[in-house]
Amino acid sequence: MQRFILTWLLGLIVILGFVVGVNIIIDPYGIVGSPRIDGLNRYKVAAVDWPRVTKPYLITRTDPATLVMGSSPADVGLDPSSAAWPADRRPVFNMAIDGSSPRAQLSFEQHGLAAAHPKLVVICLTLEDSLRFEDPALDDKTPKKEEFDDRMKATRSGAPNPDYAHGRFEDYLFAVASTRAFMDSLRTIAAQSDPSITYQSPQGYLHAAKFNVWAKTEGFHSLVTDKDERYVGIYLRWDKVSYFDIEPLLSMIDAARDHGAQVVVAILPNYADQMEIRRQAGVTDRFDAWKTRVTELVAEANQADDKDKVTLWDFNGFNRYTTETLPPEGNHVDELQWFWEPVHFRPELGSILIERMMGKGPDDIGVVLTPENLAADIAAFHEAQDKWVAAHPADVARIARMIADSRCSTDPSTCGKDIATATISTSAAETVGTPR
Questions:
Q1: What is the dihedral of CA 129, 130, 131, 136, to 10 degrees?
Q2: Which helix (H) or strand (E) holds 115?
């Protein structure tokens, strides 16, 4: 009996040692820092599922000159290897986290500033990141501990994190000794020869080849309209509460400048469908309020005489990049040149945005926002949208049908009724209270 137990224990140790060895060599999440070897583990396909775990470790092995903050549009659209980044702004690390709110982005920024010494921080904003369905002031009254807090080198306030060592231990244990990591190691090995893989680079960038696969199998029409339907539901729901939370932006700016970094803030572009959904859902005025608050926060930061001025770029609007004709349903050949779908733009457009923020590039996208030109910018946006609505009746009707179907599914009394907002102009839309 004793011999059986010893044999069983020895076998268990051998198996565990094998699992740990494979996980250390393959390093499926990039946490351990094992060398990336072509054909074996270079492409971290499993890390795509765990950006809140992997990116905090990747940046500790990098000393970027530029740190990119934001959520998935920045993660997919702003490539650290783009030639648009000036030499003195490289290397670049993309710390954008899919699905992150401004409050979460502040935590990841504080970690990045504690782990590296960037000279430039680019803070990328979208309204979608800021949407809230309850009063954000509740978070200030009862702060909630996030699952990623323990792996941050610094707390949200910038102070050293007392739980950092414990958080790292748990992550390393998961990365080298868990069966999930072992399965992801095997998946990593198997995916190395797949030209269509989506993976995370050592610079934190999401190489989203999945969009190419989806475009070829489903077509760009399906890519766009599927995301349209999702945001129709989100905005119709948000219309009933209309909270947004962008206040952490000021703390993000202050934290970066306290570490000696220059700051650029960018409102990222949307495809025309997304802007039309907001209009027909009745929340365009709240987008204006959000943009106004962003401008106010940047202006407040710029009142500090002893700090470099923050530049606010607004790339959201109607132009040749955001108004491409959507290929017809069933067409799997024609593509959108600049967007994957309404909120995620392609890295080709990302390079143009980088050029603009760095003082170069074409001047047909983006404007530097200030309190002085904000009203004119908002008016120009509404005028451009009115022209787009008048020139694209089929697209307006397509989105109106989505709005009607979504409302009908939640409120049968609206079924069969026309959507008035499909035809009104943005400038004539009723103005409602400004949310904060």
A1: 140
A2: helix 102-115
Tell me the pLDDT tens digit for each residue of 56-85. 999 999 999 999 999 999 999 999 999 999
Q: Which domains does the chain have, with CATH numbers?
A: 66-151+200-422 (3.40.50.1110)
- 416, burial (CB in 10 Å: exposed 0-12, middle 13-18, buried 19+): exposed
Segments in 340-373 forming alpha helices (H): 347-357
Q: Per DSSP, which regions of 111-203 are E strands?
A: 120-125, 131-132, 199-200
Give helix 209-218 / helix 220-238 axis angle, nearest 10°.
110
Give the residue from 261, 200, 187, 163 showing the smallest Cα distance to 55.
200
Task: Using alpha carbons only, give the angle 345, 282, 386 rounded to the nearest 5 degrees.
Answer: 70
pTM of whole model > 0.85? yes
Q: How many CB atoms lie within 10 A of CB 343?
A: 23
Instruction: Tell which residue, 368, 280, 386, 268, has the closest CA to residue 322.
Output: 268
Residue 158 φ/ψ, nearest 5 degrees: 100, -5
Residue with tokens 């050592």, as numbered in its chain: 202
- pLDDT block averages, 10 residues each, the chain of length 436: 77 86 96 96 94 96 96 98 98 97 96 96 97 72 72 91 94 95 96 91 92 88 96 92 90 96 98 98 96 98 86 98 96 95 97 97 96 98 98 97 91 69 44 32
Tokens of 280: 């027909």
Distance CA 285, CA 287 (A): 5
Residue 413: DSSP 8-state: G
Give the C-alpha separation, 270 to 266, whole Å.
Answer: 13
For residue 125, is it left (φ>0), alpha (ψ between -120 and 50) or beta?
A: beta
CA 89 to the chain's CA centroid: 21
pLDDT, tens digit, 9 for 90 and up, residues 304-329: 877 789 999 999 999 999 999 999 99
